Amino acid sequence: MSTKRSALVIGSGFAGLSVASFLAKAGFKVTVLEKNAGPGGRARQLKADGFLFDMGPSFYWMPDVFERYFAQFGKKVSDYYELDRLDPSYRVYWEEGHTDLSADFETLKKTFDSIEPGSGEQLEKYLQEALVKYEVGMGRFVHKPGLSLTEFMNWETVSGALKLQLLTSISKHVAHHFTHPRLRQLMEFPVLFLGALPQDTPALYSLMNYADIKGGTWFPKGGMYAVVEAMYKLALELGVEFKFNETVSEFKIDKVAGSKRRGQISAVVSSSGVYSADAVISGADYHFTEQQLLPAAYRQYSEAYWKKRVMAPSCLMYYVGLNKKLKNPVHHSLFFDVSFATHGHEIYKEPKWPTEPQFYVSVSSAT
């Protein structure tokens, strides 16, 4: 009688929850070690003084990606949570006045035309090109496992890559369609989520504009943590075991001569014990996993290598609870009321706290 293979997963963020479920589906006995008191990683919840906050992601774009994920297990998003499409998708505040980005495309085109005559038609053309990038980028690249270059060595994929405008910046691509600085900023801002300036980001990422405008901005009832709860519940249904408040500190390597697992991880040391499994998968940050958990002799990169890398910046977040209700708040508000050029330069080119930072406010209780 064969023994079920075992797997340890480090971390229960989106990656950890996902890989745990897929391993369980493949027949593994899966245990997840998580340093926090519950699942979610950076997308976990904060409960304080009667308030409830989503600590991480707040924009729900690309609902097709979530549907695709749950479909791998014979499930649907609606089996776990409900979605509301936001309208307006978000509001942008300028130095003077504001613009609401309607969820209705015809209304949005009129908004564009009111800022720059003829730009509504340009928006339609722009999104037709962005749709191609979305379909090619997601279907022929993102959803590939990325185990070998041979996955991409076919004419369909190569010809698709030629349509992605990998050598043109999204800044130039947007400028080709729109003249008004407000419209350019509206179309460029989504790539900031990637951690780079528009002039340094390929036009491929106009696919994010398609995801935004055509795919829509949504919100799960109960908050973004509803997504975490859904993935966690699915994992439990598949038999995954979770151990919370378990901080992993070290990977032990099998060094026994003649051992079939020589050079592989033989044990995982945590704050509560030592675990072993047939497979170990880390959902923690790459740098932490390699530089903190792996012994030096088994690391692929040196600390000097990491110090030369240009890391995407993080952000400063405030979780604010009020003792009164706001009057007609919008769920998402972006404040572009100061110079983006200065803001971007001070963050990406000469890293420092920006003189006049732009910021974003999410009032999830509005929905």
Provide structural commentary.
The chain has 367 residues and is α/β, with parallel strands linked by helices. The protein has two domains: 6-58 and 224-308, FAD/NAD(P)-binding domain; 83-221 and 311-366, no CATH class. The chain has twelve helices and 15 strands. It has helices at residues 14-25, 63-71, 105-115, 119-142, 155-161, 170-177, 181-188, 207-213, 225-237, 286-293, 303-308, 340-349; strands at 6-10, 29-33, 45-48, 51-54, 83-85, 90-93, 98-101, 218-220, 241-243, 248-253, 265-270, 274-275, 279-282, 332-335, 359-362. The strands form five sheets. The protein has a four-stranded parallel beta sheet with strand order 9-2-1-13, with helices on one face. It has a four-stranded mixed beta sheet with strand order 7-6-14-15, with no helix packed on it. The chain has a three-stranded antiparallel beta sheet with strand order 10-11-12, with no helix packed on it. Strand 11 (265-270) and strand 12 form a beta hairpin. Helix 1 runs parallel beside helix 9, helix 3 (105-115) crosses helix 4 (119-142) and helix 4 (119-142) packs across helix 8 (207-213). The longest helix has 24 residues, at 119-142. The N and C termini lie far apart (54 Å).
How many helical stretches?
12
Which percent range fits the helix content? Answer: 25-40%
Mean pLDDT: 92
Low-confidence sequence ranges: none
SSE order in H/E notation?
EHEEEHEEEHHHHHHEHEEEEEHHEHE
E-strand count: 15
Number of domains: 2
Strand content bin:
15-25%
- Determine the N-to-C terminus distance: 54 Å
Global shape: globular
Strand order of the largest sheet: 9-2-1-13
State the major sheet. 4 strands, parallel
Structural class: alpha/beta
Report Rg: 23 Å
